[in-house]
Each structure stands twice: as structure tokens, then as C-alpha cells.
């Protein structure tokens, strides 16, 4: 790669706008490929890019929902042919609804898991988003004694093992400033009903602003305390919890790098949610 001095000389040699425009970085453009990748790996994209992809998905859905006159005419003609046949010769095609395929991805060792699916508020409509909760039936990993002692010192309770997390490049990249925790990798439900509803709230009078998030306290591997915000990003197939705001500070102080592995635990002090990071 060219060093900074060479790059500055190259830019200085450009005198016309067209040449400069060719050299500039192309802006992010949503595509079907990006949409497919983001559905199973949202951690590879920034929050702004995920919002663009969500809007792009809505546009595709609208385009696909437009009636196709030719197909409609063929269906009507076929239905008439069936109705005109003698009753004993009529064969109506069975309507078979394919079961929804759910892929669970684990990025590290974990206990035996059982799956519990919770529908939307009504609990009946197939159009409502599904919350997928993994409940581990085997023993949780052992938490080092210094962490247990700290939880006891804080009068903490309801200690839960949430997930094994392998850090991706997007988790330590400074311009992202967030740790992603895909919901389909969380081992158990750790939020109260009020907290779940809080994660769906947005600021602004019309409720269409930025996500408000939930304030949590995070203990790093050295048991230092940090105040962060927990937010939930919703995509077509995957919901992801994200620790934001001061995450870059935790990465810098602990020298986290891509490939490092963490155990993430939760506990409560009174009613306040705490998260604990144990570096393996």
C-alpha cells in the first residue's frame, strides 16, 4: 500500500473533478446480496447500513406484492376448467404450507440446547415476528471465583450464562463502536417484560426516531465498571442485541482483537441489569 505522503502527492496531482470522483470511495448501495448476508450476519454492517437494507427489503416486498395480470388470468382459467369437469373427476390441489426453517448458528462451545419459540403479542398470527430463545439443558460453564466474589460484593443475584462470543472484526472496529450479540445465540431469557418493551421504544413524538435503548452496567475482565446502552436491531430473520456507546473504551483498555473469545454473563443488583465479560 502507498504511504500517506505518496497518497497526498497522488491526490494533489488531480486537477479535474471527474478524475477525483473516480478516485473517491463508492457509497454503500443496498443489494439483494447484501440483504441475504445481513439476514444471518447483521454484525458485519453498521446501524446506518442495516436501516438502508431494511428499507430496501420493504421496497422489494412492495414490488413482489403487485398483482401479475397474466398469472391471475391463468389461475382463473384453470379454476373454470376444474369447475366445468364432472364432480367425480375434480381433483383439488392440496394446500401445503412449508414449515419455517430456522437455522441456529453457534460460534463457540455450548451446553445442550432446547429451543423455545415465542410468537408476537397475540401469539397466533404467523405474520408477527418470532422471538427465538435458547434454553440450555446442560450445566453452565464455571465462572472464575474472582467474578463470583465481585457479584457477591455487589449483592448481586440471578446470575445467568448468556453466550460464548468470538469477536469479529466488526466488534472491534472503532467506527462501529458496538458488540453484537445475536438473539439466536443467547442461551436463556435474561430480560424482564418491561425491558423487552423498552428495547422497542424510539425517541421523538411520532415514535420513528432512534432507538432509546436500555442502560446497563458492564464489568470487563478486570472487573472495571462501564455504563453502556443495550439496543436491539431487528432484521427480517434475525434480532440482535448490541452493546453501544462506550464499547470502544472497553475494547481499547482490554486490547480486544478479532478472534478473542468471551463468556458473557448477566446478573442483577436490585432491579438493575449488569453484564459480565470473562475473557477466555
TrEMBL record:
Q: Which GO terms describe its cellular component?
A: nucleus
Its source organism is: Glycine max
Molecular function (GO) terms for this protein are: DNA binding
Region feature (Disordered): 62-85
Q: Name one Pfam family in it.
A: At2g31720-like
Name of this chain's protein: TF-B3 domain-containing protein
Q: Where in the cell is it found?
A: Nucleus
Keywords carried by this UniProt record: DNA-binding, Nucleus, Transcription, Transcription regulation
Amino acid at each position: 500500500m502507498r504511504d500517506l505522503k505518496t497518497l497526498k502527492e497522488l491526490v494533489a496531482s488531480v486537477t479535474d473533478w471527474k478524475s477525483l470522483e473516480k478516485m473517491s470511495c463508492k457509497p454503500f448501495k443496498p443489494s439483494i446480496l447484501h440483504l441475504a448476508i445481513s439476514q444471518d450476519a447483521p454484525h458485519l454492517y453498521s446501524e446506518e447500513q442495516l436501516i438502508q437494507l431494511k428499507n430496501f427489503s420493504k421496497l422489494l416486498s412492495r414490488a413482489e406484492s403487485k398483482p401479475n395480470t397474466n398469472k391471475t388470468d391463468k389461475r382463473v382459467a384453470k379454476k373454470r376448467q376444474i369447475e366445468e369437469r364432472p364432480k367425480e373427476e375434480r381433483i383439488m390441489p392440496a394446500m401445503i404450507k412449508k414449515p419455517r426453517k430456522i437455522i441456529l448458528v453457534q460460534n463457540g462451545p455450548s451446553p445442550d440446547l432446547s429451543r423455545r419459540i415465542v410468537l408476537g403479542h397475540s401469539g397466533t398470527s404467523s405474520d408477527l415476528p418470532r422471538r427465538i430463545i435458547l434454553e440450555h439443558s446442560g450445566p453452565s460453564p464455571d465462572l472464575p471465583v474472582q467474578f463470583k466474589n465481585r457479584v457477591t460484593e455487589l449483592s448481586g443475584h440471578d446470575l445467568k450464562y448468556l453466550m460464548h462470543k468470538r469477536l469479529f472484526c466488526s466488534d472491534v472496529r472503532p467506527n462501529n463502536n458496538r458488540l453484537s450479540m445475536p438473539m439466536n445465540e443467547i442461551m436463556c431469557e435474561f430480560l424482564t417484560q418491561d425491558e423487552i418493551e423498552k428495547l422497542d421504544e424510539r425517541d421523538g413524538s411520532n415514535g420513528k426516531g432512534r432507538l432509546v435503548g436500555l442502560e446497563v452496567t458492564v464489568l470487563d475482565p478486570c472487573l472495571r465498571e462501564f455504563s453502556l446502552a443495550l439496543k436491539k436491531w431487528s432484521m427480517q430473520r434475525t434480532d440482535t442485541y448490541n452493546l453501544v456507546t462506550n464499547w470502544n473504551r472497553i475494547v481499547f483498555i482490554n486490547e480486544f482483537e478479532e478472534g478473542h473469545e468471551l463468556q458473557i454473563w448477566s446478573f442483577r443488583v436490585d432491579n438493575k441489569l449488569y453484564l459480565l465479560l470473562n475473557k477466555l
